[in-house]
Specification:
four-stranded mixed β-sheet
Length: 350
């Protein structure tokens, strides 16, 4: 049993100076250790708080359908959210990279188009059956230049993209395009003038979900240069093509229609005038020279995208229905596309 009688001792023991100094020193040492411990605990809490608030910036995972954004260690969570947010309506972003910012008159512009499909699945725009064609076109003004389109663009030049980054090289002429010389030197004699120019990314039609890039500034030098030489045609050339920069392939014969020179009239029962044409196949066809631009092909009426201003002689061509539904001809004289007839054709001078 404890006794507290010593507390009532009228003469309690006293501490000499040496013992008092030892007690005071030990008390101060204990106080210092407690302050150091408190500072370490506080610092650890601050570090944990900082790491917790910046964890999204410093550590991330590539989630399907999302971009991976690199953010500096000094960024805040709010900055990460702002910089990494992509408009959900934008599936594909595009960047045009040119090899040389200065080219001579008549010299081609080369480079690479970089597509970034931000989705986790393959994207074809506007849909998998009608993937739109694209090209890089050079213009000397501030307005997007008028371009011509081949009947069938290569697969690499269509908006049909795997997830992630796709890099596609391009070649663009520094000449004024028309439908008869789509991005080739064939029948495009007019050089763009020397001076400032722009490389435009152009799509055949209105497309959603694609962020079209701003044109890239280039300079066309006034020193001049040789016109690009077409590549030789492959031997043999069983199908018509302009892939080499000039027409390659057999000379088209006249069509088998019932009209003058083999024109289709709409009364025929056999292809290519009547229904039943095979998409992707070339058919000998007599192109009427009428200035209204109307033809009959595959049992339908079509209107030329580039009708002649006045009537011209008929021309023998190769006509092809693209698997995506587009129609166009190719011939030694060029290439032109057609649209299904909608409104009545405009008047023209015969």
């Amino acid at each position: 049993m404890s006794s507290f009688e010593h507390l009532d001792d009228p003469q309690p023991p006293s501490l000499d100076d040496d013992r008092w100094e030892r007690v005071r020193s030990r008390s101060h040492a204990i106080a210092r250790r407690r302050r150091v411990t408190l500072r370490m605990v506080t610092s650890a809490a601050v570090i944990a708080l900082v790491l917790g608030s910046t964890g999204l910036a410093l550590v991330g995972r590539n989630q399907p359908g999302e971009r991976v954004v690199t953010v500096g260690g000094s960024s805040t969570t709010e900055a990460v959210t702002t910089s990494s947010t992509l408009d959900p309506s934008v599936w594909v972003t595009v960047q045009v990279e040119v090899d040389d910012a200065v080219v001579n008159e008549g010299q081609n512009v080369t480079g690479t188009v970089v597509f970034d499909n931000h989705r986790s699945v393959r994207v074809a725009l506007p849909d998998s059956v009608h993937a739109a064609a694209w090209q890089v076109a050079i213009g000397s003004g501030a307005v997007e230049p008028v371009v011509g389109w081949l009947d069938s663009a290569p697969a690499a030049n269509r908006l049909d993209l795997a997830p992630g980054i796709t890099r596609v090289p391009f070649v663009a002429i520094t000449r004024q395009q028309v439908a008869s010389c789509p991005n080739t030197a064939l029948d495009c004699p007019a050089l763009l003038p020397a001076g400032a120019a722009r490389a435009w990314f152009v799509v055949d039609g209105a497309i959603e979900h694609v962020a079209i890039p701003a044109p890239v500034a280039i300079t066309i030098s006034g020193r001049g240069g040789p016109a690009p030489e077409p590549q030789p045609c492959p031997v043999p050339s069983p199908e018509p093509s302009m892939a080499s920069g000039q027409y390659c392939g057999p000379v088209p014969p006249a069509g088998n229609g019932l009209g003058p020179n083999g024109e289709c009239t709409g009364r025929e029962t056999t292809v290519p005038c009547a229904a039943g044409v095979v998409p992707g196949k070339y058919y000998a066809f007599t192109l009427p020279g009428r200035c209204d631009g109307v033809i009959v092909f595959g049992g339908r009426r079509w209107i030329s995208e580039l009708p002649p201003p006045t009537s011209v002689p008929d021309m023998d061509v190769w006509m092809r229905l693209d698997p995506s539904g587009g129609l166009g001809f190719i011939s030694p004289n060029g290439a032109v596309g057609f649209n299904p007839e909608g409104n009545a054709p405009g008047a023209c001078t015969r």
